């Protein structure tokens, strides 16, 4: 429900706020090393875990499913939110889950392609947390100091991504930004693959390039799929599947950057570079397929669906002939 009622334009902004705060918090929590007989890293998991659990209990009562149920808003504010949501998701509907709609959801290639695209870039996103500290330690920083000195990297990434999010929405285009992010991060991976010939400054610059590139593409892939899924149930299933499947990237990343590969991580950087290429290729296929479908609808080759009964026609979601996909 939250994914459905959340305006997608804010995804990049809110996601990037999460890049900064954990680093400062982790730095302070690491100072609790030895308190209560626990290591500093254990305190990070304990405190942040308890915060997540506590907030989830509170938000259960604060977050509502629909604007009409938000008692803390005035009637005018509820109407404004409803209009914004309609502008965000369009008029295509799938608000009834029946056999027909379930088949449409399960057979939709976009959901599985979008999830695979997200898996590739999300693996690269998870991996940055694994190799960033290794390079920062080469400056002589300890683990806690590495957390603090990674903040400029995340801060720069967040600023760039918010700009990209604004531009992407302004011109209503996604593919080009995913490709740019993949291309930009690949430059950083190439530099890191050749780091034995590089100075510490070049390595540090490479961290900025990789992180900026990866986190440009990362939120756009989420929004892009959501843009192209219309209807209550289809967006709910598609978004949930994409995020769930994509989070396998955390497991993949942890097996690419193993301790015995430090500090060069040749296999890890090589694999991450390959994943950015795969992400770019899949995104291109995705864009071309969406463009082809739009042209077919413009030519009237999906107008036969207008012959369906009214109940079925109004529950087609993005299969409705009037719906146009975002490239």
TrEMBL record:
Record-linked InterPro entries: MFS, MFS_trans_sf
Residues that span the membrane, as ranges: 109-131, 151-168, 175-192, 204-225, 237-257, 269-290
Principal subcellular localization: membrane
Keywords: Membrane, Transmembrane, Transmembrane helix, Transport
Compartments reported by the entry: Membrane
Record GO terms (molecular function): transmembrane transporter activity
One of the record's GO cellular component terms: membrane
PANTHER family hit by this protein: PERMEASE-RELATED, TRANSPORTER, PUTATIVE (AFU_ORTHOLOGUE AFUA_1G11820)-RELATED
Name listed for the protein in its UniProt record: Transmembrane transporter
């Amino acid at each position: 429900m939250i994914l459905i009622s959340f305006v997608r334009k804010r995804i990049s902004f809110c996601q990037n706020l999460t890049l900064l705060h954990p680093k400062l918090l982790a730095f302070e929590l690491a100072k609790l090393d030895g308190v209560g007989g626990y290591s500093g890293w254990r305190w990070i998991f304990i405190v942040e875990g308890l915060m997540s659990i506590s907030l989830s209990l509170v938000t259960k009562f604060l977050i509502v499913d629909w604007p009409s149920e938000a008692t803390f808003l005035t009637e005018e504010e509820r109407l404004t939110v409803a209009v914004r949501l309609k502008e965000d998701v369009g008029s295509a509907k799938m608000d009834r889950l029946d056999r027909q709609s379930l088949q449409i959801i399960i057979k939709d290639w976009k959901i599985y392609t979008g999830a695979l695209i997200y898996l590739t870039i999300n693996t690269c996103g998870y991996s940055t947390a694994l190799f960033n500290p290794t390079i920062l330690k080469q400056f002589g920083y300890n683990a806690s100091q590495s957390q603090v000195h990674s903040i400029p990297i995340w801060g720069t990434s967040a600023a760039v991504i918010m700009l990209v999010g604004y531009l992407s929405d302004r011109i209503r285009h996604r593919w080009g930004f995913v490709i740019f992010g993949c291309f930009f991060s690949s430059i950083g991976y190439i530099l890191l693959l050749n780091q034995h010939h590089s100075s510490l400054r070049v390595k540090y610059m490479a961290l900025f390039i990789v992180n900026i590139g990866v986190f440009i593409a990362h939120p756009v892939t989420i929004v892009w799929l959501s843009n192209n899924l219309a209807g209550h149930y289809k967006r709910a299933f598609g978004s949930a599947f994409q995020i769930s499947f994509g989070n396998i990237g955390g497991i993949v990343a942890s097996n690419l950057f193993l301790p015995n590969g430090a500090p060069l991580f040749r296999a890890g950087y090589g694999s991450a570079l390959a994943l950015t290429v795969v992400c770019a290729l899949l995104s291109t296929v995705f864009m071309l397929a969406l463009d082809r479908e739009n042209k077919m609808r413009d030519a009237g080759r999906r107008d036969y669906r207008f012959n369906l009964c009214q109940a079925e026609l109004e529950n087609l979601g993005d299969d409705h002939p009037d719906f146009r996909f975002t490239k």
